[in-house]
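seq as requested:
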Amino acid sequence: MKQIRNFSIIAHIDHGKSTLADRLIQYTHLVDERQFRNQILDTMDIERERGITIKSQTVNLPYNAKNGLYYELNLIDTPGHVDFSYEVSRALASCEGVLLLVDASQGVEAQTLANLYAAMEHNLTIIPVINKIDLPSADIERVKVEIDHELGLDADSALLCSAKEGIGIEDIFEAIVERIPPPSGDVDKPLTALIFDAQYDSFRGTIVSCRIFDGSVRQGDTIRLMSTGAQYKVEEVGIFRLKMEPKKELTAGMVGYIIAGIKTVSDTRIGDTITHEMNPAPKPLPGFKEVKPVVFSSIYPVSSDDYQSLAEALEKYKLNDAALVYQKDSSAALGQGFRCGFLGLLHLEIVQERLEREFDQSIIMTAPSVQYRFTLSDGSIVQVDNPIYYPDPAQIKKSEEPYIRASIMIPERYVGPVMKLCMERRGVNSRMNYPGPGRVELIFDMPLAEVIFDFYDRLKSITQGYGSFDYEIVDYRESDLVKLDILVNGEKVDALSMIVHRERARDRAVKACESLKEEIPRQQFKIAIQGAIGGKIIARSTINPYRKDVTAKCYGGDITRKRKLLEKQKKGKKRMKVVGSVEIPQSAFMAVLRTDTE
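struct tokens:
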């Protein structure tokens, strides 16, 4: 056990985490030059295109240190995005130390701080590493000052490296061996293993990634998952090199995988504890919690004939992503579909993109919403994530919505525009910290519903890409919430309804009406598109009808003749309006959702 080191790399998005992992793997010759490719631990196309890590990966690195001993270093790679913060916390709980990566030109950013606090909560050894020192814009001294002031770490012990050029990689290995303590644990105690990830294999079932804290596990053992009480027989155990390598047994301190005929990823819970059925551990490892969806949206097939294939695609997708929650849903305008819950907006985008790419689905998603809480006059509390279930306004005593605490890191010159943006989004309780010269940290409490649409994109454009943003969900707070309905020709279109704050309702309604006016084709009769709260119309736009000049044949003669023809036409149009129904094209739904996200 003394020759094992378990560590993770944490960093803000785009500070070179995957590139450093690549260099570490290359240095230990796990992969030859011919088979190597960039972002080798990122297995999905989306991860490679966007340069983000969605699914955490693990790799066991063999290393011969300068002191002549052979070490096994387990790198537990974590997702970098705030949506997956619970998975990151479980991966960190499996480590003894972390490399905290800081970009030599960008310096310390919002998620660097958030990740540092997460590592401190788990009492991990933190090794600061300044990356990208080969860049012309690198300012190592400034970054050292930031590490000292902002993070409170010893800047003199920071390692300098360039993951891209492969500079300083050996120093990092030596620091891991010297500074990170070996795992502690007792082989003779009952088995306790922490699940920090799981992936689905169509031939072998779920492959569980875990860190063994005490005891040992081998092929043939009967194990139990402590949160569900389910029992399984172990078929294979092993470690992760770039491919899975079977071993006789996994013992305390090791990180590896267990295959035990578990049917789906949903049967395992990240953060759960594995123990032996015959000799169970007295209590599970701390920190386990159920992951709850935060953002909700409905998915419908573009063609109603594709409903069955969408249902199958979601079922297959769910095998690999236990965080996705869905149930059947239907809409008068869009037909049969599914109401889905996601961990955040990035998770929603990934699910949408993977359904389209990997399962060839053409889908429409309704506007994302969050879970609101209403206290009714009889004292009961209802949770509503779908505008269709908005309670009767006369019954509502109090309405609440989830709030987040946003931490925004920006260069000083952007303070004005960013504060204006946060105020527009109903931000309150603002605080300012000055972590280093020329840099400001703004802290705001804001409603989650205001952030999920386009806040991040707006922040990036206002700060020319320099702003970084991190958030945590705080609590529910009272708000004046109303249901905004969109009516076309007097009929409600349920798929376009949304729950909004009363102050923002008018803006939303005007935008929705304008975009529908552009998309719905003209008819023989006038079409009114309206935004309404209950029976009160707050916005309207009108699609003018096609006109036929019925008076063309009346040249000269009496004016009453013309008037009679016009009156006749008017009656016909009126009758047509009563019986005529307006077909809303798919592009119109897309357009309304786009106005919310642009």
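The chain has five domains: 4-179, 192-276, 295-366, 373-479, 482-597.
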